[in-house]
Amino acid sequence: MNVIFIILLIVTTSFLDTLNQLLLKSSINILNLKVSNLRNILSMILRLALFPRVWLGFCFCTLSLFIWLFVLSKADLNFAFSADSVHYIFIALSSRLILKEKVGFRRWAGTALIIIGISLITWSNR
Amino acid sequence: MSKGKITLKILIFLIASDLLETFTQFCFKKSAVPQNELFIQNPADAMLFITNILGSGFLWIGLASVILTFVIWSTILSKIDLSVAVPIASFSYILVPLVSIIFLGEKMSLLDWAGISFIIAGVIFVASSTEKETAAA
Q1: Residue of A nearest to B101 (CA)
Q2: pLDDT of A62
Q3: Residues of A with Cβ-Cβ distance to B25 under 8 angstroms
Q4: Closest listed residue to residue B17, CA positions, set B64, B59, B70
């Protein structure tokens, strides 16, 4: 199986996971709750279930799981799991562009290191 | 907004979340392996893939492990900062390859390990950037 195709699928699952995170985070930001124990967390989850966008995120998450399982049926786990760290890049970009969070030098440097790492394992598994 | 120090309980939770994450990926891989020969060319193939995989016990064990990980992770984050928790959790980038080699018979080259080292360094950089930048914002 073509490693580029597998990488594209892994990028797709990471992209869908990032969309899910954005939908979740924006809902949590709207709720603006203080969470300190398991009980708070459970009550927050129940309130989050009322957001349609959380369900949309759940659909993305499910789709991502099936694509991930397809990837695992073809590729080595050690390769796929490492390459999946591409989601750190999507999270950094989307936090900056969509949620307007501040992304500093350290975070971009870390993201660059992750890109180098993924490139190395992709090169080695080509 | 610094939270509490890492207590023994939190450390055990962190190790448990690493082990569970690794166990989840192992189960997912096990559930997917029998579908190795299946190539998806049309929607019917995709449906076959999904029904086959839903019939695998490993998938359901893996999903149960995801839920347990989520509860443990939420508890960890309620006690310590994300910037502290993530570097420790990135230990799974070493555990998953080790499990792949020992239990799944996968092979890894030096270049793979080099790549993983870069990824772990990157994750630690990303995570350690959180606190300062939020404070500055």
Answers
A1: A78
A2: 93
A3: 77, 81
A4: B70
Q: Is the confidence at residue B131, as pLDDT, over 60?
A: no
Domain count, chain B: 1
Test A38 with B104 for CB contact under 8 angstroms: no
Query: Using CA atoms, how far apart are residues B131 and B52, in angstroms rounded to an integer?
Result: 45
Residues in A closer than 8 angstroms to B50, CB to CB, are 66
In terms of pLDDT, which residue wins out, A122 or B136? A122
Name which of B33, B111, B136 is nearest A120 (Cβ-Cβ). B111
Instruction: Find the helix packing angle between B110-128 and A105-124, rounded to 10°.
Output: 160
Tracing tokens 């448990």 back to the chain, one arrives at B16
- Asked if residues A121 and A79 have their Cβ atoms less than 8 Å apart, the reply is yes
Domain encompassing residue B118 = 8-136
B32 in Cβ contact with A69 (< 8 Å): yes
Assess contact for A124 and B111: CB atoms under 8 A: yes
Structural domain includes residue B1? no
The 10s digit of each residue's pLDDT in A79-102 is 999 898 898 888 888 888 887 888
Of all residues in chain B, the one with the smallest CA distance to A70 is B32
For chain B, say whether A103 makes contact (Cβ under 8 Å).
yes
Rounded percentage of chain B residues whose pLDDT exceeds 70: 91
Residue located via tokens 């793979």: B112
Using an 8 Å CB-CB cutoff, list chain B residues near A109: 125
